[in-house]
């Protein structure tokens, strides 16, 4: 393990502390209607990175123009634009259903109907311009595959197609048991569920995108912000998935935990708290001021901050802005 890198247990602890901060002091996750800007930023990032993991060539600027203005800027293949459009539509639905479920979930964390619906939304736009070359009429968006899938390079072999319906029913039962303690760290429980979906590989195409969307639907319904697997972490994600194929869920659990915590600190907590409310220093860090730099400034009395009974230093945006403006001035 690289020197200074926090342990996996520490990563899990930091996630729970950040979520507790959000729930107990800041009122929990805001709905999309309450904080449109937060969810818009996450929406852009997720649509870009999740499709890029699968080979999409659009850059973030092109994704933002496509989603905000409906403009296909650049000269990329039509398939790439439709792929992002479909994923973004599905992600938008996922965030809304996770936080304002209405009549959909019937008291369950996830239903098989929702699984099919997410795949249908994500894949329909690209399927209309570039359908899977081997798909039958019964294997379109939202329909389980009727083909066998070859063994993957890592050694995992998806089950036979005629087993999928029963396996997916069992999978949704397992998902709906997440509300009960399992003894494993929560991020590793999520890792097991996410990996199990990918191992079943229920659809002919789009399983990775659908699996990540379903993971975020679960996170939202459990009071957590979504996880974004960035394209720069693609190899680490795939390696963690291969480890999970052998029932080692730690690397994937850690990746999920780091992503959710980063989204809490980067997008959610600062926006919910506003400029005057005290939040952990991690939620106030920036490229020019790391969490550690802020902590040192707080300890030295250069940054106005309060150390809580839990040992966590807290400040607010106004105080950090004051420190940033004055940190190079000599004190008399």
UniProtKB/TrEMBL annotation:
Residues 110-258 form the Fido domain. PANTHER family: FIDO DOMAIN-CONTAINING PROTEIN, FIDO DOMAIN-CONTAINING PROTEIN DDB_G0283145. It comes from Actinoallomurus liliacearum. This is Fic family protein. It comes from the Bacteria. It holds the Pfam family Fic.
């Amino acid at each position: 393990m690289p020197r200074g890198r926090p342990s996996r247990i520490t990563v899990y602890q930091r996630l729970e502390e950040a979520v507790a901060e959000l729930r107990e002091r800041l009122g929990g996750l805001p709905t999309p209607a309450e904080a449109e800007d937060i969810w818009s930023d996450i929406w852009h990032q997720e649509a870009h990175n999740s499709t890029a993991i699968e080979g999409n060539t659009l850059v973030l600027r092109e994704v933002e123009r496509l989603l905000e203005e409906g403009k296909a800027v650049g000269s990329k293949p039509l398939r790439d634009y439709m792929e992002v459009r479909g994923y973004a539509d599905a992600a938008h639905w996922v965030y809304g259903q996770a936080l304002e479920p209405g009549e959909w979930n019937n008291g369950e964390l996830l239903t098989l109907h929702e699984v099919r619906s997410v795949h249908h939304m994500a894949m329909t736009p690209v399927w209309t311009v570039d359908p899977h070359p081997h798909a039958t009429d019964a294997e379109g968006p939202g329909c389980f595959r009727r083909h066998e899938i070859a063994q993957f390079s890592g050694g995992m072999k998806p089950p036979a197609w005629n087993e999928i319906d029963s396996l997916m029913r069992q999978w949704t039962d397992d998902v709906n048991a997440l509300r009960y303690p399992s003894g494993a760290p929560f991020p590793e429980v999520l890792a097991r569920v996410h990996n199990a979906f990918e191992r079943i590989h229920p659809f002919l195409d789009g399983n990775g995108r659908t699996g990540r969307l379903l993971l975020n639907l679960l996170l939202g319904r459990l009071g957590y912000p979504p996880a974004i697997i960035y394209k720069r972490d693609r190899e680490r994600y795939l390696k963690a998935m291969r480890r999970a194929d052998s029932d080692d869920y730690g690397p994937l659990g850690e990746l999920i935990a780091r992503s959710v915590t980063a989204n809490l600190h980067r997008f959610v907590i600062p926006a919910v708290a506003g400029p005057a409310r005290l939040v952990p220093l991690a939620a106030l860090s920036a490229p020019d001021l790391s969490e550690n730099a802020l902590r040192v400034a707080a300890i030295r009395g250069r940054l106005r901050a309060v150390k809580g009974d839990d040992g966590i230093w807290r400040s607010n945006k106004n105080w950090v802005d004051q420190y940033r403006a004055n940190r190079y001035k000599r004190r008399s």
